[in-house]
Amino acid sequence: xSILTARxxxxxxxxxxxxxxxxxxxxxxxxLAALDRFAEVGYxxxxxxxxxxxxxxxxxxxxxxxxxxxAILVELVxxxxxxxxxxxxxxxxxxxxxxxxxxxxxxxAHVHFHCEYARLAVVANAEMHALPETVAAPALALRxxxxxxxxxxxxxxxxxxxxxxxxxxxxAAAVAALGRQAAHWFPSDSVPVNxxxxxxxxxxxxxxxxxxxxxx
Length: 216
What we know:
Elements: H1 25-41, H2 48-54, H3 59-63, H4 69-93, H5 99-116, H6 118-126, H7 133-160, H8 168-185, H9 195-210
């Protein structure tokens, strides 16, 4: 299977949550089992019985922790977007402050998150469509804020002459896609690189993407 078409790496190390959002006990086991199933086969193809079986519970016991399969997905989608947004914001605020440094830091944090939490990223991005818009609204708001942060950096870099872009919106979409796609194949035996190195490499690619064109 091509690394570009694989749904998600099967490496168990990707099946975990950011430490600030970890659960405990049976609730944690349920969430992690659901995360693995949703990432591997999709939300629609996963039943409550599948999740309960993975943690050796009956469905009635599982329902005492989560009222529905949708409630588990809501947790995962919300966690994914909250953790991602927090890491982007921290990276930008910790940078030197000018657009070039901010974009480099944002791109690195974006890709690194999608590698470190690949399964969570796949579920948060690819399965959010299964939620009613009103339920997905908090996650959608965080996604919009992340996009706005990126576009603001690109626009300021364009205005200052640090960047030369044909279209800000298309460039923002390309930067965003780098991280999202990494989650579908990282790690890979055919691309032997760790998350830090891949984040650095992709960040360098982004900076080349926005660099002023050489004078003809």
